């Protein structure tokens, strides 16, 4: 699965973004609240000064206002205050600001400006409120907010650092949450893979938390218990079926053998002999069909052993050598030493024997039985011949149980050889592949390492 389509990646991205947005909103809210608080306090100071001076103005006129401003502007009287009173001509009458700020409109307004106060060597950020007077003069009251604004700069720098930390924490939260979910699901996936590999006793661990993952594990375990019970019933049924059918067929063969001994005419003896052959064929078909069913059900993995596959190939070629020679075939082995596998020896031997039998029935010329190791570490056993082969379009039919192609119907067989080999390959977590041998057919039995 590609990363853009990964559910884990999308979930991690969602958690990361939510954490990031939450942190950004929190920091922005704190910043805005701080700015608003500073502005409100500065405005309150400036307007309080203005109201006090306007009270003096209403009581004693412009002269009283000038005296009040001059008195308040004295050093030490109002450390954070900024004051200026000008007459109708714009000349300074009193205050601690030398002249009316050019950038401040003469009408009543408020602004934060960078100004020098008399007696101070450096400019300061001052919140100012301008008030026009009835006689044409103007009053300027303000409050120094330099330290407050410096604090906001420090606060903004701290917020940048806090946001960087928030990004790291959001990434960690996203990673932690996905790892937690992945860890809970990994046990379920591991159990499913183990069961698929034939370990029917494996179960999903549950921790009693009664959450969705626990419910999933309990449901899967119940399903696996049911499957295990059905597999046990299948084993009992197939074993019973094999026993129940093999016994009467064996008795039938014994009866036919006695009938063959008692027969006098050649025609009668031939008919009885053919009946015995059909009985043997039926027994073989029954045994093969049961083997296929058991292999496809995953039964038999408990019998896996380490086997020298190279030696097995050599042994099979030696066993089939005389028979192949009698039928006009040349059979050779191509198996470098040291190829081993953990396999079901009996079933694999039966599958390989079926492939060699098929090559001698339907193939021609030279039969090569080979073993090799793939780059991925899997073992491959193959049987190739120089016969007519199987067209690619008909290969699925050839692999089907009891599937027989038109060219094979004239020869003895039940159409189970390739089906058994395919079932044995699946039992070993592999697959059976049919390839063009150029000419002929090459059947490859892939066995997972």
What would you report as the Rg, rounded to the nearest angstrom? 48 Å
Mean pLDDT: 77
List SSEs in N-to-C order. Answer: HEEEEEHHHEHEEHEEHHEE
> Biggest sheet, strands in spatial order?
2-1-5-4-3
Q: Assembly type of the shown chains?
A: single chain
CATH architectural label of the largest domain = 2-Layer Sandwich
GO molecular function, one term: phosphorelay sensor kinase activity
Enzyme class: transferase
Domain HAMP: 179-232
Subcellular location: Membrane
Blueprint of the fold:
Elements: H1 7-72, E1 81-86, E2 92-95, E3 109-115, E4 124-132, E5 138-144, H2 146-196, H3 212-262, H4 266-296, E6 305-308, H5 309-326, E7 330-334, E8 340-343, H6 345-362, E9 366-373, E10 379-384, H7 395-399, H8 417-427, E11 431-436, E12 441-447
Parallel strand pairs: 7-9
Antiparallel strand pairs: 1-2, 1-5, 3-4, 4-5, 6-8, 9-10, 10-12, 11-12
Helix pairs in contact: 1-2, 2-3, 3-4, 4-8, 5-6, 6-8
Features:
about 450 residues, 5-stranded antiparallel sheet, Helix Hairpins, Beta-Lactamase, Heat Shock Protein 90, single chain, transmembrane helix, 8 helices, 5-stranded mixed sheet, histidine kinase, alpha+beta
